[in-house]
Structure formats: C-alpha cells, structure tokens
Design a protein that fits this description.
With 161 residues, the chain is an alpha+beta fold. It has one domain: 2-C-methyl-D-erythritol 2,4-cyclodiphosphate synthase (60s Ribosomal Protein L30, Chain: A, 2-Layer Sandwich), CATH 3.30.1330.50. It is built from five helices and seven strands; from the N terminus they run ββββαααβαβαβ. The chain has a five-stranded mixed beta sheet with strand order 4-1-7-5-6. It has a two-stranded antiparallel sheet with strand order 2-3. Strand 5, helix 4 and strand 6 form a beta-alpha-beta unit. Helix 3 runs parallel beside helix 4. The chain is globular. The protein starts with a strand and ends in a 5-residue tail after the last strand. InterPro entries: MECDP_synthase, MECDP_synthase_CS, MECDP_synthase_sf. This is 2-C-methyl-D-erythritol 2,4-cyclodiphosphate synthase. Its EC number is 4.6.1.12.
C-alpha cells in the first residue's frame, strides 16, 4: 500500500462557473485557473500521483499547454487513473476536504463523490468528501478563494486490498 497527499488552492474570479468535484455549484463567483479550476479534483489527482511517486498535476498537465485550457478536471482525473493503471496501481480510497467560507457545498457532496468515483473506477463508498470553513480566518475566510486537501491510498494491481 502507498499513500499520497494533495493540496490545491484557487482564487475566486468573476465570469466563470464554480466547479467542485465535477459539479457546477451555484455561486456568483468561479475559480481562476487554466482548466475548469476544480480545486477538489486537483487535490485528489495530486494525492494519487504522489502516492505513485509520479510528481504532480503541473508536471502531467502544464498550464502552458493550450490543450488543457478550460478542460474538465474529471477528464484529467481519468487520465491520472489510466497512468496509475499502466504502472500497475489501483485506487484503494480517497479522503478529501474542501476549505471554503462560502458557498455551502453540503447539498452537492454526494454528486461530487459519485463523479470522482466513476472516473476512478471505484465504488462511491471509497471516496469521501467533507467541507469546512476557516471561521473567517485567512484567504478562504475572507472569501478570496477555496482550497482542498486530499489523501489517497493505492495498491499494487496484483495484490489489491
């Protein structure tokens, strides 16, 4: 078994939809980024890549490459899983937390779990998503952006769980 951790942060910007876990969350601001800026999926991808010793999403999907402009992060997650599978790794589980003062994402968490589990080829109960605020502290507390953290466990494909 191997474990990886992922962290990502994006600032809010006007004129973009807010996408978290592949879900369009109703909010007057979106997140700034080259892709769809899905901070949750980015943290999950970094955790998976880290567990496999494969670097981070910047290495695999550079923001200087126009093919990734506006791309769904779920598409990138599927690519990460294909890369891990080629290296003979399978996902054990993922645990993630979204840190944001607003908006409230509780009503959308189940769909986020379903979306990410589908792209990772695992059961939904192997994907956990939680949300928390910072009690008004820091950039998230001031409403400047959103961050996410994730931990992922992977197993050799020849000896899963």
């Amino acid at each position: 078994m191997r474990v990886g951790i992922g962290y990502d942060v994006h600032s809010f910007v006007e004129g973009r939809p807010l996408i978290l876990g592949g879900v369009k969350v109703p909010y007057h601001l979106g997140l700034k980024g080259h892709s769809d800026a899905d901070v949750l999926v980015h943290a999950v991808m970094d955790a998976l890549l880290g567990a496999a010793g494969c670097g981070d999403i910047g290495k695999h999907f550079p923001d200087t490459d126009p093919q990734y402009r506006g791309i769904s992060s779920l598409v990138l997650l599927k690519d990460v899983i294909a890369h891990l599978n080629n290296l003979q790794w399978v996902v054990g589980n993922v645990d993630a937390v979204v840190i944001a003062q607003a908006p409230k994402i509780a009503p959308y968490i189940e769909q986020m779990r379903v979306n990410m589990a589908r792209e990772m080829g695992v059961a939904t109960n192997l994907v956990s998503v939680k949300a928390t605020t910072t009690e008004g502290l820091g950039f998230a507390g001031r409403g400047e952006g959103i961050s996410a953290q994730a931990v992922a466990c992977i197993y050799p494909a020849t000896n899963p769980r």
